[in-house]
Write a structure and sequence with these properties.
This protein is an alpha+beta fold. The chain is built from two helices and five strands; from the N terminus they run βββαβαβ. The chain has one domain (5-90). 20% of the residues are buried. The model has no long low-confidence stretch (mean pLDDT 80).
Length: 93
């Protein structure tokens, strides 16, 4: 687990969060293995706290909140080079 990083994704137009694991230092949505629910579908969490709790139950103590925003495109600018804005978080008590 030491080379893995826990991720929580926040999408600007969604009311939920998804969580996953990646091998990359900051990770990206393309490389992440997203957590699944009991039906085998991507698990959706109503808050960052709930997503953090799910990752904590898997043994992770740190991770990144990755906010994805199409803001530049929404206001008519050219697409941004990078739409993911990672922020570290700590899951320790």
């Amino acid at each position: 687990m030491s080379s893995e990083r826990a991720l929580i994704f926040s999408f600007s137009d969604c009311t939920h969060y998804v969580a996953g694991i990646t091998q990359e230092p900051e990770g990206s949505s393309n490389a992440a293995q997203l957590l699944k629910n009991t039906d085998g579908k991507v698990a959706k969490f109503p808050s960052v706290f709930r997503a953090q709790q799910a990752l904590k139950q898997l043994g992770y103590t740190k991770g990144w909140l990755v906010m994805q925003s199409p803001y530049d495109e929404m206001i008519g600018n050219e697409a941004a080079q990078k739409t993911e804005l990672p922020m570290p978080f700590d899951l320790q008590d």
